Amino acid sequence: MAGDPSFAIPQRPERTYPYSGGVKYEGETVFRLVPAADRTDADLDDLVLTVLESGPYRYGDFLNLPMPLYLVRDEETRDVFRLSIRDGEIRLHVLPDTESDGLRAMYDRIADRSEGDWRVTYETRE
Questions:
Q1: Which of 25, 32, 40, 41 sits at a 20 to 30 Å CA gap from 51?
Q2: CB of 65 within 8 A of CB of 71?
């Protein structure tokens, strides 16, 4: 569709494994889905949960954080990414193997289940 946002990934994070243990990501690309009408984080979380629960997703949330944060796997596209909600926007965090199709599918499902338009921007950090 003309005018649809692009989910081309300009920079991928690199996964490293520090000697001290754990996983660290260097670099970042985050797509921000901003509703045209103001919505609370709780309203956005309800919308996201509706989309996640209706599939084709497997997901888990991170407990005890000051904001909703999910690790999401799209079973159709096989893409994995993080999704967070903060300051009235939904953020899709690219992981090293994330492809555009999974991000686009999430956006399409969110847009289909909500009223109003969405603006999509992205930012990268080294």
A1: 25
A2: no
Separation CA 48–CA 26 (nearest Å): 27
For residues 72 and 57, the answer to whether their CB atoms sit within 8 Å is yes
How does DSSP assign 58-124, residue by residue?
A: EEEE-SS-SS-EEEEEETTT--EEEEEEETTEEEEEE-TT--HHHHHHHHHHHHHTSSS-EEEEEEE
The one-letter code for the residue type at 90 is I
Give the residue extent of every domain in the chain. 30-125
Q: Decide if 10 contacts 123 (C-beta within 8 A).
A: no
Torsion sign (Cα): 116, 88, 13, 77? negative
Q: Flag whether pLDDT at 1 surpasses 90.
A: no
- pLDDT category at 20 given cuts 50, 70, 90 is very high
As a whole number of angstroms, the distance between CA 87 and CA 8 comes to: 24
Architecture of 30-125 per CATH?
Answer: 2-Layer Sandwich (3.30)
**Distance, first Cα to last Cα, the chain:** 32
